[in-house]
């Protein structure tokens, strides 16, 4: 058993993932939360559709109908709704761009822009949400989540008997139900993707995982369709990091930080492609420069600049300025 607190918590979380359930207390009584499976999510989807139809029959407007009304009244226009989508796309594109950059001086303005766009998106979304009343979709989501909760709590470890009957669940006061939801969500926070990734790179997990050799299909002794989502995530992440550790040299200082490992691999691959392109261009012409980087910046990045003169140095030799004839000579090489 690992000695440090973080490893102990990860070990406990791994054991719960392996069992497929977590212990949980309601009013001092121990019960068990079943971890979600594909079948559970399918049932939740069916419940959502059933309650959505019920809400429509009750006359509750859909989100589309509400947005149409708001547009007609001039309170929230279709143009404003489209603006949210545009900002979301811009935010996604900026994040993709950031991942492909190598130089720190390139990253700084992009990070600043991402922060700016995120704030703008938050502000406009909050304005939109404040104008939208109860919708059929919101009702369906609330009711299906409540029923999903009931189907997730059991009396015994074998998950054979639900903790609440339908009548018992319907009699729960709203304040008490909110408390149960909060405790339920808190009990499952430990199964975040970040924590599951940390388990996947931990020594105790790797030692167990390696026992199964190349074939990990029987790791949890279940048919793949019966695996919980946490079990599937852990298996997939375990395989991913297994491949990484076998094919890449990972600095020891980041070996226990899964996100830094993934960033290291991605940045390394992106940098390798970019440097190959830069090196090729730098050897094809004198005066090559890249993204405001001087020769020393390129060499720090690992670019072979032999055979090419830095455009900044050439400009200095010419008194600080280059004319069109100079550029023609530079690229004639």
**What's the rounded overall pLDDT mean?**
84
Which runs of at least 5 residues are low in confidence (pLDDT < 50)?
286-292
Q: Structural class of the helices, strands and pairings?
A: mainly alpha
The share of residues in helices is: 55-70%
What string, H for helix and E for strand, traces the elements in order? HEEHHHHHEHHHHHHHHH
The portion of residues forming beta strands comes to under 5%
Q: Biggest sheet, open or closed, and with what strands and sense? A: 3 strands, antiparallel
Query: Over all CA atoms, what is the radius of gyration?
Result: 28 Å
Q: Estimate the global geometry from the Cα principal axes.
A: flat
Query: How do the strands of the widest beta sheet line up side by side?
Result: 1-2-3
Question: Helical segment tally?
Answer: 15
* Total beta strand runs: 3
Question: What labels would you give this structure?
Answer:
333 residues; mainly alpha; 15 helices
Quick overview of this protein structure:
The chain is mainly α.
Overall description:
- A 3-stranded antiparallel sheet has the order 1-2-3.
- Mean pLDDT is 84; it is low at 286-292.
- Among the domains are: 74-130; 258-330, no CATH class.
- It is built from 15 helices and 3 strands.
- The chain has helices spanning 5-19, 38-57, 63-73, 78-99, 104-131, 136-150, 166-170, 174-188, 193-200, 203-211, 229-247, 258-284, 295-301, 311-317, 324-330; strands at residues 21-26, 29-34, 153-154.
- The radius of gyration is 28 Å and the shape is flat.
